[in-house]
Every structure is written in C-alpha cells, then in structure tokens.
Amino acid sequence: MTEEIALIFTNYNISYIFAGLGMTLLIAVATLFGGTFLGTVLALFNHYGKISGKVASVIVEIFRNTPLLLWVIVAIAAVPLRSILARALVATVIFNAAIISEIIRGGLNAVPKGQIEAGRSQGFSFFQIMIYIILPQTFRKIIPTLTSQSITIIKDTSYLAQIGVAELMFVVKKLMSTANTFTGHPITAEDVFILFGAAALIYFVINFGLSVAVRKMQKKLDMKIK
Amino acid sequence: MNSGIFALWRWEALWASRQEFIDAFFVTIKVSVFALALALFLGVVFGLFSSGNNKVLKGIARVYVEFFQNTPLVLQVLFMYYGLLYAGIGLSKEQIGVIGLGVYTGAYISEVVRTGITSIPYGQTEAALSQGFTHLQAMRYIILPQSVKIALPPLANQMVALIKNTSVLAMIAGGDLMYRSNAWASNGTLSYGPAYLLCGILFFCLCFPLTYFAKRYERKLKNQANNSEKEACA
Lengths: 226, 234
What we know:
The complex is a heterodimer of chains A (226) and B (234). By secondary structure, chain A is mainly α. Chain A is built from 10 helices and no strands. The longest helix of chain B is centred in the last third of the chain and has 42 residues, at 192-233. Helices cover 82% and strands 0% of the residues of chain B. Chain B has helices spanning 8-16, 18-51, 55-69, 73-87, 93-118, 122-130, 135-165, 177-186, 192-233. Chain B has one domain: MetI-like (MetI-like fold). In chain B, helix 2 runs antiparallel to helix 3 (55-69). Chain B starts with 7 loop residues before the first helix and ends with a helix. Chain B is mostly helical and 234 residues long.
C-alpha cells in the first residue's frame, strides 16, 4: 500500500490535485457570493413584491424541484459565453440563488414588521431601510444556514466533473484512469481506493470544519435569543 | 429545415424515441423508491442510535453521519463504481445508484429522525418507563408517533433531494432520466431543447408535490403551535 501511495503521489500529481482543489474552491466561492447576491434580490421581490413576488416564487419553485446537473448541462448548451467554466457558473449561481433566497426569506420573516414603519417615519427610503436596517439583521440570523449551504455548494461542484471543468473530482477521476502510466501496472482497486480516498479526505476536512463552525454559530445564536 | 432549438421537427424526433424516455423515467423512479426505502431504514436505525444512551452506538452514528454528509455524493458513487469495477465485483449501475443514494440520504434522514426524537421532552420517556413500558415500547407507542409529525416536512424535503440526486447516475451512464436526456440530445439531431425541457418537467412533476406538501404541512404545524400557545395564555 505505501509503495503504491508513493507511486501515485508524485510531485506532479500532488500539484495537479491541489490545482483541482483550487478550482473547486474558486467555483464554490463565486457560486456562494453570486448566489447570495442574486438570492437576496429574489427574496426581496418574493417577500415585498406583488406581481414580481409571484414571478420570483415561480422561479424559486422551478429551480428547487429540478436537479442542478440538468441546469449545468442546459447552460453548457445554451449560454452564449466562451468558456465552459463561465457557462457552468451561470447555472450554479442561478440554481443556488433560488435556494439561498428561501433561506433569506426565512430570515426576513423573523425581522419584526414594525421596523419598516419605524424606518419610514424617520424618512428612510425602502432601499435604505433594507440596506441599513432589515438586511443586516436578516444576515446575522441566517449566517449559520448560509454556511451549511456552502457545504452543499462545495459538494455540488463535483457535478461539474461531468462537463470537464478541472475541479477536484475531475482531476482525481483523470488521475485514476491514467494511473497505469505512473504505477507501471494495470489499474487496480487499490489505486481507486487511494485516489478517491485522498479526495474524500480533502472534501471531508473542509466540510467538517465548516459544519463544526455552523454548530458553534448556531449555539451562540440560540444563547442570544434565550 | 427550421433549426430553432424548439423547432417542431425536433419534437417529432423526441416523440419517435418516446419509449427511451419512458424507460429512463422508470429507472429514475425505481432507483428513487428503492433508495428511499434503504435511506429510511438506515435513517431510523442510526437516528435511534444517536438519540439513545449507548455511547458506542452514538459514536458509530456520528461517524456515519459526518462522513456521508461531508463528502460529495458524486465522489461516493464514483468511488463505489470504479472500486467495484476494478475489484471485479459485478453490481448493476442501478444497484450502485440505490446503495449510493440510500446510504447518502440515510445520513440526512438519521439527523431528521434524531431531531424529531429529541424535540419530544425527555420527561415523556421517563413517564412511560415509570408506567412499566420498556424503552422500545416507549419509543414505539409514545415518542415516535409524535416525532413523525415533526419530522414529516424535512423528510419530504429529503425525498426531493434524493429524487434530484438520482441525476448522479448520469455520471456513470446509469440509464436514468438525466443520462438518457443528455445522451439523446447530444446524439444525431442535437435536439437539446425538447429533451432538456421534458427532463425538467418530469423531475418537476415528481418533486413539486412533495415540496408543496412539506410547505403546507409545516405552516399547519406552526399554526397549531401558535393556537395552542394562545389557548394556554387564555
């Protein structure tokens, strides 16, 4: 086993794996921020708009009830951008915006309505009330849920392996299918185990860290409410 | 010939291969149903483990939940697929899908079950035990019937996640709806439009009733809780 590990993890392969990890994190961060921004807009429409609220909730339902992979593949076929990565990002951002908007809506519900009236009476515009009064409180409440959504986002980047974006899953799959070139013998179950095990470990360390953080934040928030 | 992505002749081509899509749809449903059964079984077992008093069982349940929730489903399924392939163990792709999805979703359901059980005050278990119920009887007759009510909405949401996640089978060419739509669309006529639209509609038809039910039921539970609070105040 140890010889096999040494054969597989050459310097070149290690840096290849880390490049894949970098790509995974890049996709995840872009998706999280893009999705949160767009999700906030959707949630505000959904919560305060009448007709636009209906439209927003239809959009949310459509994305919540269909698989991410479908939208990624649709984006690859239909979005007029040059790079595959950019097209895939369009899909992951919009898909997550729909899910995050539901999280934000939950947070908006928890802020007392009187605050809007109070803001109005002080001469704030709707936009100002949102930016300075409502949204900061909303986000403080939903940070734990948003963090656990970011775990899902990181895990879901692995779907992009299907369309050839060189993120962690793709990289590991590729190394596995060419393992015979650096081990010098046909691919064995052991090679699969080592490579996929390494990938699992990397994903686990990041996501477990995040899930511990979620639990800590949740506890702190619960204490404050009590 | 009209080359728009939703041109009429593309729909005709889709209609001509309808049997392929019907078969794929049934693969998706079949995998979902069996995976759900496995997930429910694992979820209840590990949920009971993690809400019980036995430290060892609790630890085992914790490891199970943390491992499967913190690594991607895609990785788990590919791991199993290639591992079994090179170990020479023959499992069909559908079986791999059922096991992969069942074990993954089971980790989530076990957390749903645990929250359901721990949300019932422990005093009720003590009361039941003092009346001569065994621990299992107390669970069966007193605690679980109440937990089920609380757990139903998140359970429905997990079912939706499971159905959507069957698309992971497309990554091992598993013959499911997602795979078939993509394969059909990228072969020959390149009729992406109708194929993806149909795929989306079918997934939506499977999932929407569940999310709708979850939302309604959750609201009902909340209203009940509010009403009983009001009664308590009055």
